[in-house]
């Protein structure tokens, strides 16, 4: 049945890349790009809810989830490289046009892909991911310290904080409006992958590379102003990682945009997958999903 989630692997740049697939390939393609420190696991409840309307692809980046985790000496852990991996995966799957769902780290991956191929991207769903400096919350002080002084001390402080189980749980439960709906499986699963030997070094490399995302913000903003893709913002308004100024930017700059500030935190889908699914369907129905076949 089309609503069943299929679990697959593809070989991209010599790496085994895991992805979840649901829905019929005859439907508009929706590519779901996960955030830190999760994987495609964060979309596990959303995928079956959207499979009747979209063809869904949710990959794990290298070093995350079930995709390969080469060492930092064997693979360049950058957001640019992640975007190339996703682009090549979509090419393998013959997906030429698609909507991008971007959460957290998924934003820098998705916007790089959009800037390279603006006519392939038919819209965005933004869940707590930003394209403006004002959208960066307090936890990015750790990132900024790493960018300014990438020495052993700041690297150790960064790794000790962002890969700790306390920080992982905080991302799931801080700001949650219905914490009893937040399954403990998410943080425990994320931490299992973070605890693998060599993963701290990967997260430090990505934390340092994040500075290049900030440098790209003017380019991503100009892309949005120029191409005006339809954008649905589904935002956990109690997120402590990204500020509401990140959500407000899209509303201010775009013509075809709908913003929903929902009661929840960084991992909003843990308590609001059904609501998010309804908003996604209603938004793209309202603008006509047939446009995605053109």
Keywords:
eight-stranded mixed β-sheet; globular; 8 strands; single chain; alpha/beta; 17% strand; 294 residues
The total count of strands amounts to: 8
Using the alpha-carbon principal axes, give the shape: globular
- Number of H/I helices: 10
How far is it from the N-terminal to the C-terminal residue, by CA? 26 Å
Strand % is: 15-25%
Q: What is the SS-derived class?
A: alpha/beta
Multimeric organization: single chain
Order of helices and strands: EEEHEHEHEHHHHHEHEH
Give a structural overview.
The protein has helices spanning 46-50, 79-92, 106-116, 140-148, 152-162, 165-173, 185-194, 199-227, 244-253, 269-287; strands at residues 6-12, 15-22, 29-33, 55-59, 98-103, 121-127, 231-236, 257-262. By secondary structure, the protein is α/β, with parallel strands linked by helices. An eight-stranded mixed beta sheet has the order 1-2-4-3-5-6-7-8, with helices on both faces. Strand 3, helix 1 and strand 4 (55-59) form a beta-alpha-beta unit. Helix 3 (106-116) crosses helix 8 and helix 4 packs antiparallel against helix 5 (152-162). The radius of gyration is 18 Å and the shape is globular. The protein starts with 5 loop residues before the first strand and ends in a 7-residue tail after the last helix.
Topology diagram in text:
Elements: E1 6-12, E2 15-22, E3 29-33, H1 46-50, E4 55-59, H2 79-92, E5 98-103, H3 106-116, E6 121-127, H4 140-148, H5 152-162, H6 165-173, H7 185-194, H8 199-227, E7 231-236, H9 244-253, E8 257-262, H10 269-287
Parallel strand pairs: 3-4, 3-5, 5-6, 6-7, 7-8
Antiparallel strand pairs: 1-2, 2-4
Helix pairs in contact: 2-3, 3-8, 4-5, 4-8, 5-8, 6-7
């Amino acid at each position: 049945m089309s609503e069943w989630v299929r679990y697959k692997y593809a070989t991209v740049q010599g790496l085994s890349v895991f992805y979840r697939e649901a829905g019929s390939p005859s439907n508009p393609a929706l590519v779901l790009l996960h955030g830190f420190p999760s994987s495609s696991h964060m979309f596990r409840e959303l995928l079956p809810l959207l499979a009747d309307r979209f063809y869904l692809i949710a990959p794990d980046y290298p070093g995350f989830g079930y995709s390969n985790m080469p060492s930092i000496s064997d693979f360049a852990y950058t957001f640019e490289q992640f975007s190339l991996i996703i682009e090549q995966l979509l090419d393998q799957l013959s997906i030429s046009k698609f909507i991008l769902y971007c959460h957290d780290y998924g934003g820098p991956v998705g916007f790089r892909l959009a800037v390279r191929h603006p006519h392939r991207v038919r819209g965005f769903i933004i869940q707590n991911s930003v394209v403006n400096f004002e959208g960066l919350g307090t936890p990015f002080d750790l990132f900024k310290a790493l960018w300014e002084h990438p020495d052993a001390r700041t690297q150790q402080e960064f790794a000790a904080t962002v890969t700790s189980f306390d920080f992982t749980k905080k991302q799931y439960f801080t700001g949650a409006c219905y914490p009893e709906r937040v399954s403990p499986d998410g943080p425990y699963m994320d931490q299992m992958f973070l605890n693998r030997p060599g993963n701290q070094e990967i997260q430090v490399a990505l934390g340092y590379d994040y500075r290049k995302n900030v440098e790209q913000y003017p380019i991503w903003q100009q892309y949005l102003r120029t191409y005006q893709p339809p954008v649905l913002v589904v935002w956990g308004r109690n997120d402590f990682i990204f500020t509401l100024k990140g959500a407000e930017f899209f509303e201010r700059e775009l013509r075809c945009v709908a913003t929903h500030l929902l009661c929840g935190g960084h991992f909003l889908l843990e308590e609001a997958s059904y609501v998010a699914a309804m908003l996604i369907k209603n938004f793209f129905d309202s603008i006509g999903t047939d446009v995605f076949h053109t």
